[in-house]
Amino acid sequence: MERSVLATFHTPSSLRSGLLCRCPRCGEGKLYAGFLKLAKRCDRCDLDYGFADPADGPAFFVMTGVGILVIAIWAWAVIAHQPPLWVQFATVFPALLVGCLGTLRPVKAWLVAEQYIHKASEGGASSVSKTQ
Ligand SMILES: [Zn+2]
C-alpha cells in the first residue's frame, strides 16, 4: 500500500519541501495550518502528519544558527565601525527576531521531511524488543 502511494508521487528532496513548507511526500500540499501548527494531513495526497514530531529541534537549530551569525556580524561591526549603542540595540534585536521567525517555519518543515524520509520515530522499549 505504502509503496504504491509513493510510486504515484514525485517525492521532492527534504530541503525543497522544507524551504517551500510543503508536504514531504508529494511536495504540493500545505504542511502548516498556522504559523507553526502542522496540518492534520496533506490536502493533496492525504498523508497523515501524525508521524511528525520535531519537538524542540527547529527552535534549537534556529536560535543557535541565527544567534551565531548575528552576533558574529555585530562583533565585526563593533570592532570595525564602533557604532553608537542605540544603533546596536536598534539593529541587533530586530535582526535576531526577524532571523529566528523567518527561518523557523522552513527549518521545522525540513526536519519533518527528514522524519518522513528516514521514518524516524521516538525510541522506546517496544522498538528494542522487536529486534530481538
Ligand atoms: Zn502531500
Largest sheet, described in full?
none
- Classify the beta-strand content into a percent band: under 5%
Uncertain runs: none
Order of helices and strands: HHHHH
What distance lies between the first and last C-alpha atoms, to the nearest angstrom?
27 Å
The general outline is elongated
Q: Tally the helices: what do you get?
A: 5
Mean pLDDT: 88
What value does the Rg take, in angstroms? 19 Å
The domain count comes to 1
What small-molecule ligands were found?
A: zinc ion
* Beta strands, count: 0
Output the structural class: mainly alpha
The share of residues in helices is: 55-70%
Quick recap:
This protein has 132 residues and is mainly alpha-helical.
Secondary structure blueprint with pairings:
Layout: H1 2-7, H2 14-20, H3 57-81, H4 85-118, H5 125-131
Zinc ion is lined by residues 23, 25-26, 29, 42, 44-45, 47.
Description:
This protein has 132 residues and is mainly alpha-helical. The chain has helices spanning 2-7, 14-20, 57-81, 85-118, 125-131. The longest helix is centred in the C-terminal third of the chain and has 34 residues, at 85-118. It starts with a helix and ends with a helix. Bound molecules: zinc ion. The site of zinc ion has 8 residues, from loops.
List keywords for this structure.
132 residues, mainly alpha, 5 helices, binds zinc ion
